[in-house]
Amino acid sequence: MSDPENTNTNTKAKTKTYGWVASLLKAVGSIVAIMGLVWTVYSYLDTRALEAKKPFLEFQFKLYEEAVAVTGRLATAQCLTGDEKCIGEYADDCDRFEELYWGGLAVVEDELVEKAMVAFRNEFKLVSPDICKPDSLSAVATSGERKNLKSVSLSLAHCVNASLHRSWQVDLLPDRCAYSKPVAGWRRLFGLGPAGKQ
Fold first, then answer.
1. 11 pLDDT band (50/70/90 cuts)?
2. Does some domain include residue 87?
3. Three-class SS of residue 46?
4. Rounded Cα gap, residues 121 and 131, in angstroms
5. HEC string of 87-122?
6. Rounded to whole angstroms, how far apart are CA atoms 173 and 175?
7. Within 10 Å of residue 88's Cβ, how many Cβ atoms?
8. What mean pLDDT value characterizes the chain?
9. 89 domain-assigned
């Protein structure tokens, strides 16, 4: 015959083991449920934050798109002397660039795009010292000195790409913005980089 005391001890040991496993499973289940709740709240808040930024991001994209288009046209325009239509379009683009430079773009641009816009304007002033004055447009439009202006325009497009990459948190293309490299040496220590808009 079996010993009732030994059987009772085995049953108690099994119950203790199952009780511990059951408690562990309940704890794990609770942790998983809490993690699911936290993830749901995080996802909701992240979506709300993106929705709140959406009007700004769309406005930024619109102005960036326009700035890249205008600088591209200014860098590549080749009007012939007496081509009043081309010179008029060039003058309109020149005026729009100045509006973007001193106005709306300053609301949405980041530091890299600002530096690229400053570089474009400085290079543009070298090609066209009397920036956007009708008297100088014909000479500027027929000038062959556009290589640097084209390069700076392309650099602006790369900086816009890098800015959009950060703003929209998407992986577009590798960062090719010439201004995203860190400032070296003592200038970096004291926060002294290239000057802003002038």
1. low
2. yes
3. helix
4. 9
5. HHHHHHHHHHHHHHHHCCHHHHCCHHHHHHHHHHHH
6. 6
7. 13
8. 76
9. yes
